Amino acid sequence: LVMGTIPVPGSLVGLTGLCPLAGPSPTSSIHVYTQREVYGTVGSHVTLSCSFWSSEWISEDISITWHFQAEGSRDSISIFHYAKGQPYIDDVGSFKERMEWVGNPHRKDGSIVIHNLDYTDNGTFTCDVKNPP
């Protein structure tokens, strides 16, 4: 029996990240950075990195939301939300028991970990950061 981390053909999960820019005006913008593509082996875990830079101080009202759009789907669902200093993992969908918050908004980090990857995790993950006002 040989064990290792070499992926078996067909067992790779491809995750695509989007980095939308948000902000009310060009003078108070926020820039969000994610990895373009992340790959993981079925059954393993992967960190979806989300870092940001804001021209304003980090407000106590900062919010971070992760969305997922399955490969081949037009619809996206919210899978995670951070607001008022608390992480909230959405209690619907296949991610609810497999997600971990590892971010720290004061360090400009909104990253999450998805555990026990599955084929159905193929798709696009979007990190949305808002830093009011």
Automatic annotation (TrEMBL):
Superkingdom assignment: Eukaryota
One GO cellular-component annotation of the UniProt record comes to: plasma membrane
Q: Which SMART domains would you find in this protein's record? A: IGv (SM00406)
| UniProt keyword Signal, yes or no | yes
Name the UniProt key words of this record, in alphabetical order: Disulfide bond, Glycoprotein, Immunoglobulin domain, Membrane, Signal, Transmembrane, Transmembrane helix
Query: Where is it chiefly localized?
Result: membrane
Spell out the subcellular localization from the entry: Membrane
Membrane association type: Single-pass type I membrane protein
A GO biological-process term: myelination
Q: Which Pfam families match?
A: V-set (PF07686)
In terms of PROSITE patterns, this protein maps to: IG_LIKE
Q: Where is the Ig-like domain?
A: 26-133
Q: Which family does it belong to?
A: Belongs to the myelin P0 protein family.
Q: What is this protein called?
A: MYP0 protein
Q: Which organism is it from?
A: Fregetta grallaria (White-bellied storm-petrel)
Name the gene that codes for it: Mpz
